[in-house]
Here is the input.
Amino acid sequence: MSERERASVETTIDLDSDENVCPACLVPFSGLPERCPSCGLRLQ
Ligand SMILES: [Zn+2]
Here is the structure.
């Protein structure tokens, strides 16, 4: 993984955004649930 890609992953979850994407399964969701609704990855 290049540094550019790593930075992209780290900014995937934006607490100020209503739209987020799970960094593990890339499923989009609104807001920031405690766990990804798709794969269950802990987001908080
Ligand atoms: Zn997920």
Remarks:
- The first helix runs from residue 3 to 10.
